[in-house]
Amino acid sequence: MKPAAFRATLINIFGNTALFVLKLVAGLMSGSIAIISEALNSLSDIAASVGTFVCVRISDKEADAGHPFGHSRAEPIAGLIIAVLAGILGFEVIRTSVIRFFRHEEIEITAFTLLVPFITMVTKGAMALHFSAVGKKAGSPALKATAVDSFMDVFVAMAALIGIAGAKIGFPFFDPAAGLAISFWIIYAGYRIGMENIAYLMGQAPPPE
Ligand SMILES: [Zn+2]
């Protein structure tokens, strides 16, 4: 792996982990399902970023006696696991959001809660720009895909912001509505990773090296 690409992979892991902790604290303190689902979005980002990191390292490994064609197939298998996890998490949030539509629960939106989606939008926007630049320079499809996901996460955070701002000004259903939208995104992103990896496992040969 090129040093810049390696650094970008690490930035991705640390960035997503920091955002996850921040969102988890804000989500538990406020009880907002939109922010909790945002935390789960970051959790699947962590899984994807660690997966990318580990797999790029494993597939860099030379072929050995037990694996004469190299280790490239490790990557899609990790991708499939991430897709399944994202599906499970997504459906769990959908269930909770639907329950919240009917059974109103008191949530407490503070200045800190409102700040978290802002921080997410700025951080993810910066990460998207960085990954897209490094991805182009290093010719890495994995980094380019990460850039697109980071860019989409800016809009996911915006949905969370609309959800909690709406709840704050007196429309409590905005929060579970945002939670629903975000969990559909988590499932969709996981599904896409899964489909790409199934295609890879079934047909496409690993690169000639
Ligand atoms: Zn993401």
Give a structural overview:
- The structure is a single chain.
- The protein is an all-alpha fold.
- The chain has a single domain (3-60, 71-202), classed as Alpha-lytic protease prodomain-like (Up-down Bundle).
- Helices cover 81% and strands 0% of the residues.
- The protein contains 6 helices and no strands.
- Helix 1 (3-30) packs antiparallel against helix 2, helix 1 runs antiparallel to helix 4 (111-138) and helix 4 runs antiparallel to helix 5 (141-168).
- The mean pLDDT is 85.
- Zinc ion binds next to helix 2 and helix 5.
Supply database-style keywords:
209 residues, binds zinc ion
Q: Indicate the mean pLDDT.
A: 85
H and E order: HHHHHH
* Level-2 CATH architecture: Up-down Bundle
Instruction: State the helicity in percent bands.
Output: over 70%
- List the uncertain runs: none
Q: How many structural domains can be distinguished in the coordinates?
A: 1
CATH topology: Alpha-lytic protease prodomain-like
Q: Determine the number of helices (DSSP H or I, runs of at least 4 residues).
A: 6
